Amino acid sequence: MANDMQSIKRRIKSVESTKKITKAMQLVATSKLRKARNQMDELRPYYSKIQEVVGEILESNKGMVDSPYLKDNQTGKNIYIIVTSSLGLCGGYNANVIKTMVECLKPEDEIYMIGNKGASYLTHHHIDFHSQYLDLNSTLEFKDVIRLVQELTQRYQNHEIASIQMIYTKFINNLTFQPYVMKLLPVDTKDFEMKYLTHKATIFEPNPQTVLNDLIPMYLQSVIYGYLVESVTSENASRRTSMENATDNAEDLIEELLLKYNQARQSAITNEISEIVAGANAQ
């Protein structure tokens, strides 16, 4: 009985240590989530305005604008930019992204991977990928996004790429986030139809096509960066939820172990009293 009590005591101490770790990680994730949400909210007006201008040009000059970014390339590979996390303990965040990736990818597709968890999965399954932007989800350097867009748009204009799509995790609220596949190139004019059309007379200098050709790379930069920040926000929200659940489970387990300990202790006391009474009666 004494051994059982000591074993339960050690388990309680072990669970309490784990609880301290999960609680600390929950607080860190909460802080990072707040910071990422603020950054995401600050970015939205910027890329929303660029999207609005692109939509206005396409809608008000329908059929008159001829841009390489609007044409479907019949040759070349499909490119996927995939955002996972570089750290674990974030629930089903990575599993959901990888599941979506497996559903979308074909053997001939090309992958630009962001995040070590996705890279580990691809390496384990012997799938080739571009790794030069692997740490972009940690650094969030906009200059690296500019470099990525320059590389991809140049390859797209050279007809090496048929399409560019991005798999990221869409942030809905602190408890809801889901993987999403967004087509970046070619720009689908249907996404802008009647969406941003205004009744203002807009003059584009030198002409709508030149403005659009310069604007679409800016649009891609802002959208990719925005989706990247959104994925990081979802990652921290998922980790905060997971650590909160782990902390709650630890508290429940401690209560259960304390109950078992008290029952064992009470049983030991009862046995001792019974032995004392039996000894006294024997005398």
UniProtKB/TrEMBL annotation:
Transmembrane segments: none annotated. The keyword Transmembrane helix does not apply. It is found in: Cell membrane; Membrane. It is a peripheral membrane protein. It comes from the Bacteria. Residues 240-267 form a coiled coil. Its main location: membrane. Gene3D superfamilies: 3.40.1380.10, ATP synthase, gamma subunit, helix hairpin domain. Keywords: ATP synthesis, Cell membrane, CF(1), Coiled coil, Hydrogen ion transport, Ion transport, Membrane, Transport. Produces ATP from ADP in the presence of a proton gradient across the membrane. The gamma chain is believed to be important in regulating ATPase activity and the flow of protons through the CF(0) complex. Belongs to the ATPase gamma chain family. F-type ATPases have 2 components, CF(1) - the catalytic core - and CF(0) - the membrane proton channel. CF(1) has five subunits: alpha(3), beta(3), gamma(1), delta(1), epsilon(1). CF(0) has three main subunits: a, b and c. This is ATP synthase gamma chain. It comes from Allocoprobacillus halotolerans.
